[in-house]
Amino acid sequence: MYKLKYIIFFFILEISFLNLILGSKIGKEGDYIFAYFSDIVYKTNNKEFSKSEFIKINGECVEWEIVVNEKKLMVFKSKYTNNLIFSFQGTHSFGDMASAVDFELFSCFFSQSSGKGCGNIHFGFQDQFNFYQNLMLSIIDYLDQPYDIYFTGHSAGGAVALLASLFYSNEKNLKNIESINCITFGQPAIGDDEFNNFFLKSLKKINYRRYINVENNPTFHKSYSQDPIINIMSTVNVYHPKFSSDSTIFLKCKRHFCPKFSLGLHSSDLYLLNLYNHNYSQCNINCRFVEQNAKFLKFREYRCMVKNESVLTGIFNPKGILPDKYSVCLFTSKKQYKHYEFSLFKSCNVNYYKDYEDPEILIDKVEHKKEFSKKLFNYKELIVTVENHNSILGTSSFAYNLSFINPLPTLKPPTNLSASIISVKNDLLYIQVNFNIEDEKNINNNNTNYNIFISNVGQNWIKYKQTIEPWDKKNYISKIINDIPKGMYSIVVFSECNGIQSPPSNIAFLKYI
């Protein structure tokens, strides 16, 4: 009888395990994440930001806590993937760079801490690094587990990111640094030849990737236009180091997306467009895009992965001296968007096969403030473009807010989490995890998963998934997990439904050494 009940219990729950090591380094395929964080740091003065962003890593939705949101620095921390990103603000244009940055070179500050000579570096880049050094140091020093640390930025922000990478790759007294990574976009050169030699010697300690937008691919063309800001420091004889490496990555403009002037190649939006990867993008929950002072020649695109019902809202407010004539288009598939071609004279222009539907024109070439709200059903990926239809100049100043809101209610976290060791065999632990479900909507929803995260101190988190069928209306779950090595563990549980995660439960602890 006992065995029969035992079999029925597990048949009803249909428990399935997926041991997924989440803690891993973000490789080149995920560099859209850094392009995205390098872009939103320009909006740090905007109070609309919540306390977190949800970005996927290899298709797995991850919550990124916004640890710092300062004028020229944002810091993002993903506790359950052990990734920490520092994003530095750069400059938007050649004019900004020329007026805001002092080109004078000063003695490299690394020589004081490392005892090594490192030449002369750009004063403005060093000054911005120094301004945030104590803050960065306190965040890294406070880490409770080994983290992969990334420094990123666009334009001058990329130069500051490289200085930070060099500094922390030469620090020997800090614990919990698993790796140092630097990913930059349109980064100018930093220092003289002596500094470049110091950088090349340190490169083996850093995973470094520097992206450059080009009009034509230099692999196949002898002459090509490239982002002009990367060589702006040549006016004071400062150049990028010469080395044979995959660290320098050229991004060829996609069809119809290249700007009219080479300076447009420096746009952070173009880096975003060239690197987009849906497996490393915003999750299918609440995507929000806020522009306070947008300036662009053709269009900007915004993507959101969605499930079931969502509501798209937009508030547009042209502010410039000249009227900003604009259109807004909604694409409901990647195939449809593939045939999009910007036209100054036609909104949402698509050269498509006869089987494709036209994109929906949400706003059609207007110059005044406008708002809209639209319910959307059963789409997986939505793409919105905001088009500039000024015939002479680009948008002079444009503010707008786009939001994809999932109307599903916020999930409540599991409660009363506890864990205990039920047996030990061959130095492996068999543990039992117990928690309550207090939200009736969670119990009755057949799409609800309960994700258990377990972390051994000093190691990565491991995720276990368990699906509860709706007709098993239990508010108490007990889960047995086998073959856990001896150690000290922290355990936390999330509810997840339709790609939306609940806040975490309380944390349970286990110790067996």
From TrEMBL:
A biological-process GO annotation: lipid metabolic process
Species per Swiss-Prot/TrEMBL record: Dictyostelium firmibasis
Fungal lipase-type domain mapped to chain residues: 86-211
Entry's transmembrane regions: 6-22
PANTHER family with a match to the protein in the record: ALPHA/BETA-HYDROLASES SUPERFAMILY PROTEIN, FUNGAL LIPASE-LIKE DOMAIN-CONTAINING PROTEIN
Domain of life: Eukaryota
Protein's UniProt name: Fungal lipase-type domain-containing protein
SUPFAM superfamilies: alpha/beta-Hydrolases
Keyword list, A-Z: Membrane, Transmembrane, Transmembrane helix
